[in-house]
Amino acid sequence: MLKKYKNSYLSFVLLYLGFYLAFAAYSAVLSVYLQGIGKDDREMSLILSAAGLFSLAIGPVLGYITDRAKRQKLVAGALLGTVALLGMVFSAVRGLGLLFVLNGVIMSALNGLSSICERLAGESRFRYGVLRVWGTIGYAAGVQGAGLAIELLPGYALFLLTAAACGLCLLGLVGAELRPAAEISPGGREGRPKLSALLESPQFFLFLLAAFIFSGCSGVNMNYSPVLLSTMGVPAGTVGTVLSVSTVVEIPLFLFSHKFMDRLSGKVLTAAVFLLAIVQFSVYGTAGSPLAVMAAIVLLKAVTSTLYMMLTLKMVRCLVPAGLTTTGLAVVGAVNSLSGIVMQNICGWLAGEWGIGFMYLVLAGCCAGGLILTLFLRVRSTETVFN
To answer: How far is the C-alpha of 235 from the C-alpha of 250, rounded, in Å?
Structure first.
C-alpha cells in the first residue's frame, strides 16, 4: 500500500487539499479576526503588511534553497511545522509588535510552500488542472470553516484549523515525489543555470512591474473584501460563505486550463487579469448594495486571482531557466510582497481617511495603469505547462 501511495494521485490530492485549506484558514478572514481583538484599520494594515516585508527578504532565499536542496521534502515539512506552531502562538498574543512578527514569518512560510506547490503542479506527471482543482476545494473549505469558526467559536479555533490542515498537507507530502528543479530541463534548457540568469531577461522585469501593480491591489482586496462586507452589515458566517462560493467558481478555470493557458500569449492573459480587476474594484467602490458586492466577489474575485496565479507560472516557465523555476516564482512572490508593503499601508490610510469605497476606486485606477503597461509586454509561449 505504501508503494502504491508513493507519487500517487491521492498523495497530491492530500498535499493540495491540505495546503490551500491551511492557507485559507489562516489568511482569508484574518482581517476580521484582528478587528475582533480590537485592532483599528491602521494597526490591522501594519500587521498585514508584515507578510510582504518578511516574504520580501525570506521568499527568494527559500526558493533558491528549494531549487538546490537534495531533500526538498524536509524543507517543505519544516515550513508546514512552522505555520502550525506559530499559528497557535499568534492566537495567544495581543501585542502589536508580536503580531507583526508572527504574521510575517507565517505568511513567508506559506508563500514559500505556495511556490513549491505551483512548481509541482506544472511539472508532475498529472495535468495541472486536475491537481490544482483540489487546492480550490481546500481553499473553499478553509474559507467557509474560518468564517464559521470566527463567528461561532473562540478565536484560537481558527488556528487549530490551520494546524490540522498543515497535518493533512504533511500526509500528502510524504507520498508526493519532489524532484530537484536542477534535474528538470524542459525544452533542452540548461539544468543548473547561475542565479544571474534571472537578470538577463528585460521582459521578465517588465512582468515583475506588472506583478507589482496587480498583486498589491489583489492583496489589499483579499484583506479588505471581508471588511467591506462586514461594514455593510453582512454577518461573518455569510462572509465566509460568499468567499467560499467565489473560490468554487474558479474550478472550471483550473479544469480547462489546458485548453487556453498554453495557447494564449502572456500579453493577452496579463491584459485580461487587469481588465477583470478594474471591473471588480469599480463595483466595490461604487455599489451601495451588499448584494452587488457579493455578486462581484463570487464572479470575479477568485477567478481574477487564479488567472494571475496561472499566468505567473506560465511567465516564469517561459522567461526563467528551468533550474531556477522555484527561485523565479519566489522572486515574483518577493515583488508581490514588496507591493503588499506599499499598498497595504497606503490603502490602510486611504480607508481610514476617505473610506473603503474610495480606496477601491484608487485600486481600479492603479490597474488601469497596469493595463497600459501590458502594451509593451512580449512573451513567446516556449513551454507547455498546463497540458
So the answer is: 24
Question: For residue range 124-179, what is the model confidence (pLDDT) as tens digits?
Answer: 777 777 887 888 888 878 888 888 887 778 778 889 999 999 999 999 888 877 65
Residue ranges of alpha helices (H) inside 297-324 are: 302-319
Rounded to two decimals, the pTM is: 0.71
CB 356 within 8 Å of CB 290: no
- Three-state DSSP at 27 gives helix
Q: Which of 91-100, 138-147, 223-232 has the highest mean pLDDT?
A: 91-100
DSSP 98-148: HHHHHHHHHHHHHHHHHHHHHHHHHHSSS-HHHHHHHHHHHHHHHHHHHHH
| Among the listed residues 141, 181, 179, 178, the one whose alpha carbon sits nearest the alpha carbon of residue 161 | 141
Strands (E), the chain: none
Per-residue pLDDT, 178: 60
Instruction: Give the CA distances from residue 311 to residues 10, 282, 301, 316, 373, in Å, rounded to whole numbers and listed in that order.
Output: 26, 23, 16, 9, 16
Please name the helix (run of DSSP H) or strand (run of DSSP E) that holds residue 291, with its range, or none. helix 290-296
H or E element in which residue 257 lies: helix 257-260
| Cell numbers placing 380 | 513567446
**Spatial distance between the Cα atoms of 226 and 8, rounded to a whole number of angstroms:** 37
Burial 227-257 (b: 16+ CB within 10 A, else e): bbbbebebebebbbbbbbbbbbbbbebbbeb
Q: How far apart are CA 195 and CA 203, in angstroms?
A: 17
Residue with cell 481574477: 304
Say if residues 34 and 93 touch (Cβ distance below 8 Å). Answer: no
Indicate left, alpha or beta for 188 from its phi (over 0: left) and psi (-120 to 50: alpha). Answer: left
CB atoms within 10 A of CB 189: 17
Range from 17-26, 184-193, 367-376 carrying the lowest mean pLDDT = 184-193
Among residues 148, 312, 138, 306, which one has the least CA distance to residue 239?
148
Say which residues have a Cβ less than 8 Å from residue 365's Cβ, sequence separation at least 6.
Answer: none
C-alpha separations of 325 from 27, 32, 319, 368 in Å: 25, 35, 10, 29
